Amino acid sequence: MKRSLALFISAGLMLAMSGCAGTTATTTAATTTATTTTAATTTATTTTAATTAATTAATTTTALSGKVTVYMPSPSGLADQLAAGFEAATGVQVETFQGTTGEILARLETEAANPVADVVILASWSDGLSLKQAGQLQSYTPAAAGSIVDGWIDEDQELFGYSASAVGVIYNTTIFPELDADWSELADAAYQDQLAIPDPEKSGACKDFIAGYVTNNGWSDLEALAANGMIVPGANKAALEAVTTGEVGILVAGVDYNAYSSIAKGEPLGIYYPAGGTVVNPRPAMIMKTAPNQANAQAFIDYLFSDEAQNLVAQAYLLPGRSDIAAQGRTGLADIPQLTCDWDLMMAEASEDAAKLNELCQ
Questions:
Q1: Of the N and C termini of the chain, which has fewer Cβ atoms inside 10 Å?
Q2: Contact 314, 320 (CB under 8 A)
């Protein structure tokens, strides 16, 4: 009897233990299922959030409307193409003012009390730095920031070199079939009364060259050129015309893209970059802090670095602002001998240097 009772109790305990094991397994399975469900829910939520973010970004990109006002220098054909391309891509109307760097800066000053410009592009990096120093620019990170040529975007991301030009010696090949004199050598008597230079108070590219040359070499060479009869016919276009027509034979510090464009049209011109080095001048595009259309201004900056816009830049004989876009029909960036540019120092004296050169050439 006692033995039967013991067996009965033992069997009961085994059943109880079996029941507990089943409960534990069920609980574990339930917990696993719950965890899986939670993970799935989290994944779904994350995916939904990502989709929402992407949709929002897409909506933001496509929701542009209204207009953007852009002030930009020559070449005028490029300005028109960029405006048309941006309008086609976004539906935003582009209103432009085209002029020299000096004319653009004068207009900004006139409109200071009632700002109009959203984006300003200049042919002078030092003048762009002056606008930055005055606190007039808005910081922004362009979509293609990682592809911009080294040094063509400032550390605060307020100036964006979407293109660049350099100045060289442009000469009339009917007067001088060949020419490779360095800057200082143009003071030789063989070139007396054959020299012209763009007005540096109107040409941003020439202005920066003068400042760069003076900070590297002092004034003696430029004073010698002035003493050799160098004249100032006007801004870039007028100065190049003086050489094209044969009024003089040599343009000192002529903007290169104008020369390449004229040569392509059959004009009797040649261009080279003197061995002493020149200034490659990024052309800064900037968003004004007072821009009435900030979102459109940011979109326009992004467009300037798009494949389409950068190829338009290359076709205009400018140096592209992206390192992965090749120059076309002209000397590339790597093959241009360059002066060392201390842009802060150049900015501080550029206007004064430009005025002094004009005085020397009177």
A1: N
A2: yes
